[in-house]
């Protein structure tokens, strides 16, 4: 008997209501709408309320994905949370989320520190776990970057926003099938992007806290830019080759939304027409692990994805990690 396809059976999202525009940043920092727009394409981003935590964002996105799948939290068999801004470092956000959702005592864990590639990696892991055990797995990408970043560092803080997206992965005749996935890591590049203070290598001390080093994002901007373009393009080609498909077969590319220039450069390398590439970085900024599920959700809500469409997700993040995945809706 043919098995039901494994893929996405529900999608959800949560965006905080508060909008921070480039003009708002220009009132606090030596920057301008013109500089931010020209270098990044970002016009505004969402910021969580002071009384919200990562868990609040994650739970809202998760609930909408579970409802979209026509399920309840009791139907879940596993929870994976991709985040670099966890509720607490220990225990992980997934433990809090399992309890908040009212799920059973199911396996729940975080993919932390994989930067913005975490959600796509989570989908790939979920696919394997569903195939192995016929499970229903919630995958969440959530980031509350505004809480951790240094609001005086104009190089970094203007890039980011808060938000959460989620998907339920399962086996169902109506699933958006995961056709293929690929992921990789170049651990020689751990120094180009990340938040190093707080672990065992650079422990959290009063001296470091006074210099706000715990909020410092280390980012070699142009190096990250080049790696991002190279890795996202290569991962896209690789995942298509694994599925025996070509770029001509793709209806929509949903790339990690870090910077409009990075997205355009990937489009150029892959020779994609602009209308085949989904962009929301102008409105949301870089939402880290939440960026891909938020963009996928918005693309679907905007009617950019039709039944039968082939959708390519491609992402990169601190590590240096990358991951790409193909979906047949
Ligand atoms: N407003 C105004 N000026 C700024 C600024 C800001 N917010 N941030 C930096 N500058 C200044 C710099 O100080 C520099 O001035 P100088 O020439 O006098 O030293 C100048 O603008 C150019 O800075 P540079 O860093 O060379 O700009 P860039 O064209 O490389 O763009 C990034 C910077 C960060 C936008 C770009 O490198 C990038 O997007 N990299 C990828 C980052 C990324 O995606 N990170 C997240 C990954 S998940």
Give the total of domains: 2
Bound molecule kinds, no repeats: coenzyme A
H-E order: EEHHEHEHEHEHEEEHEHEHHHEE
Q: What proportion strand? A: 15-25%
Label the structural class.
alpha+beta
Query: What is the CA–CA distance across the termini?
Result: 22 Å
Q: In angstroms, what is the radius of gyration?
A: 19 Å
Number of strands: 13
Range of helix content: 25-40%
Count of helical regions? 11
The CATH class of the largest domain, by name, is: Alpha Beta
Describe the structure.
- The mean pLDDT is 96.
- The protein contains eleven helices and 13 strands.
- It has two domains: 6-174, Peroxisomal Thiolase, Chain A, domain 1, CATH 3.40.47.10; 179-328, Thiolase/Chalcone synthase (Peroxisomal Thiolase, Chain A, domain 1, 3-Layer(aba) Sandwich), CATH 3.40.47.
- It has helices at 22-28, 33-40, 54-68, 93-101, 118-133, 145-148, 206-210, 221-243, 260-269, 281-284, 291-301; strands at residues 6-14, 18-21, 44-47, 78-83, 107-112, 137-144, 162-171, 176-185, 193-194, 218-219, 252-255, 310-317, 321-328.
- It has 329 residues and is α+β, with helices and mostly antiparallel strands.
- Helix 4 links the parallel strand 4 and strand 5.
- Residues 31, 35-36, 39-40, 115-116, 154-155, 158-159, 193, 219, 221-222, 224-225, 258-259, 286, 317 line the site of coenzyme A.
- Coenzyme A binds at residues 31, 35-36, 39-40, 115-116, 154-155, 158-159, 193, 219, 221-222, 224-225, 258-259, 286, 317.
